[in-house]
């Protein structure tokens, strides 16, 4: 996700996803440690797997993380996540441009 290409809706989704401390920790852990599977990431962050799944889903919907399902040597399905490359420009000019593309724009 490049900052120059963010629509208003994408900007809102990214900011909403990052507005939660658990999700900030998830992105931070993936950025620092690289890709990881859900169970291991849950242990490292001391969070339940179901709650982590909810946070990962929100982050993935916003394009901030990506996932890939892989089979382990013993046949278990492991869902690996990694931080997606992104940069968000929060300058007034960038926000003014993003506002023009909001699908729920009260000004129209």
Brief summary:
By secondary structure, the protein is an alpha+beta fold. It has helices spanning 8-18, 21-33, 38-45, 49-61, 92-99, and strands at 36-37, 65-71, 77-83. 49% of the residues lie in helices and 15% in strands.
Would you mind describing this structure in some detail?
The chain is of the alpha+beta class and 108 residues long. It has helices at 8-18, 21-33, 38-45, 49-61, 92-99; strands at residues 36-37, 65-71, 77-83. The mean pLDDT is 89. A three-stranded antiparallel β-sheet has the order 1-3-2. The chain contains five helices and three strands. The protein is elongated and about 50 Å long. The chain has one domain (3-99): Arc Repressor Mutant, subunit A, CATH 1.10.10.10.
